[in-house]
């Protein structure tokens, strides 16, 4: 490619960047810099940094960029050095940008921009600084997840520019093969070693990173040089990633927030002129939609927080100054993650789930008028603090399950009814004299456990009754009873 003269006293401007699949971002960049750039040097590979095969998407969509074709120098990378890791591949592809400069016959005084495609300089900054005699560090605002979610101001300093002769000077001892990447993070050190001046430009552009939604991000996490770093590995959990996006958590951090900002005159003109397209494509987030998603997430997290704190007996400010048990009752929360109340030790294999049970009586409080359906209800689903069966008030109310065959018993877990909440544990105390008996035939029973004289037991508050069956106890029938009153419990689980 012949080196043509231009209006800058013979000096030309080369915009050099690596490209993966960011077609929409490339549109923004080309339109933003077209008026000040002579050549766009685009380096694209047919493999990801993690070694996966990929299409060269720029070549596939080159007609989309036909208005800029006369300025574009495409540098294909069809083979990475063997046995090199993701970081070395990243450095190698960036170093290949020098091929494009050589192909164009770039001259020592030509002004060269080195960055990634999503690090877009302002055209005015390039116009103002293209004659600088040293390195130009382009400090950019950083945007994440959405174009209108700003992570920070002037915090991204990896893009830089310089006359070509200073680009060649980056090849310091030990960095002959990664000079362009090393300079992204060590420009000040390079200046100290070379004596070449450094010019820092604030508000120099936009770094639009981690855009495109869940599917695109998961693809990125498996492809880029950071693929095996802790944060991208953690974010491959879709639920966690969605939560991070909804909350606006800063990428690479778990405790910093980004902020939504208006798409105003400070944004690239191409984004402002095509705002509807970028909104419909998921790049610009509607602030009302974002707030609604945040409200929904807040309610979900508050429910989970209530479940995680059920063992606490004092009011909590994040639960409307309610005791957690009282809060889940008033909020009507029934779907409580069992992680919060299952005993830590392995109880064994549940042999009572969905078995047939019966009880001594039914009442107006029963969940079903049929004693079998009412009694069997306590063997299904998760505990939630409410009763699942309810006998009438009587002498010696009982509940019994048929395990269908004689089995060795290991553990019996009984979740007491805890709601309606009462500070004096009135509801829990009703099961204060609970007795557990076992039988081989349903006629002759052996007492296994008697709770009389012990403190009330709980349930979803993390304090269920856990009875360990020692001595090789075997049974087909398990019966729970009280001397008098009404028997009502939340969940019963029998393990072998």
Automatic annotation (TrEMBL):
GO terms for molecular function: beta-1,4-mannosylglycoprotein 4-beta-N-acetylglucosaminyltransferase activity. GO terms for cellular component: membrane. Pfam families: F5_F8_type_C, Glyco_transf_17. Transmembrane segments: none annotated. Residues 359-484 form the F5/8 type C domain. Keywords: Glycosyltransferase, Transferase. One of its GO terms (biological process) is N-acetylglucosamine metabolic process. This is N-acetylglucosaminyltransferase.
């Amino acid at each position: 490619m012949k080196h043509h003269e231009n209006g800058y006293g013979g000096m030309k401007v080369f915009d050099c960047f690596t490209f993966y699949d960011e077609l929409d971002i490339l549109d923004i960049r080309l339109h933003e810099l077209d008026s000040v750039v002579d050549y766009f040097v685009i380096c694209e590979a047919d493999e990801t940094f993690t070694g996966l095969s990929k299409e060269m998407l720029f070549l596939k969509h080159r007609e989309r960029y036909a208005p800029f074709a006369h300025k574009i120098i495409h540098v294909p990378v069809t083979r990475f050095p063997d046995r090199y890791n993701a970081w070395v591949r990243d450095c190698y592809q960036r170093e290949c940008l020098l091929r494009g400069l050589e192909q164009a016959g770039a001259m020592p005084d030509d002004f060269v921009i080195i960055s990634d495609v999503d690090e877009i300089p302002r055209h005015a900054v390039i116009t103002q600084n293209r004659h600088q005699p040293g390195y130009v560090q382009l400090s950019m605002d950083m945007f994440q997840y959405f174009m209108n979610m700003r992570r920070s101001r002037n915090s991204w300093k990896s893009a830089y520019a310089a006359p070509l002769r200073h680009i060649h000077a980056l090849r310091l001892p030990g960095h002959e093969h990664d000079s362009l990447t090393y300079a992204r993070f060590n420009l000040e050190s390079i200046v100290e070693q070379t004596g070449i001046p450094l010019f820092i430009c604030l508000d120099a552009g936009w770094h639009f990173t981690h855009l495109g939604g869940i599917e695109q991000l998961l693809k990125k996490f498996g492809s880029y040089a950071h693929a095996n770093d802790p944060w991208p590995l953690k974010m491959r959990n879709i639920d966690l990633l969605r939560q991070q996006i909804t909350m606006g958590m800063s990428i690479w951090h778990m405790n910093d927030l980004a902020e939504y900002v208006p798409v105003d005159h400070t944004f690239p003109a191409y984004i402002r002129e095509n705002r509807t397209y970028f909104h419909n494509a998921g790049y610009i987030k509607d602030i009302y939609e974002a707030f609604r998603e945040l409200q929904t997430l807040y309610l979900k997290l508050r429910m989970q927080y209530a479940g995680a704190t059920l063992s606490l007996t004092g009011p909590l400010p994040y639960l409307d100054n309610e005791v957690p048990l009282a809060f889940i009752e008033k909020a009507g929360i029934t779907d409580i993650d069992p992680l919060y109340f299952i005993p830590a030790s392995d109880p064994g294999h549940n042999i009572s789930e969905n078995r047939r049970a019966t009880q001594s009586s039914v009442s107006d409080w029963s969940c079903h008028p049929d004693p079998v359906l009412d009694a069997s209800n306590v063997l299904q689903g998760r505990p939630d603090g409410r009763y699942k069966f309810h006998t009438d008030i009587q002498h010696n109310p009982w509940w019994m399950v048929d395990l269908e065959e004689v089995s060795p018993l290991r553990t019996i877990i009984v979740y007491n009814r805890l709601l309606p909440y009462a500070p004096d544990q009135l509801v829990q105390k009703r099961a204060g004299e609970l007795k557990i008996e076992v039988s081989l035939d349903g006629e002759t029973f052996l007492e296994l456990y008697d709770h009389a004289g012990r403190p009330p037991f709980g349930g979803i508050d993390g304090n269920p009754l856990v009875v360990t069956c020692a001595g090789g106890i075997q049974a087909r029938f398990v019966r729970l009873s009280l001397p008098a009153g009404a028997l009502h419990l939340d969940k019963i689980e029998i393990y072998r």
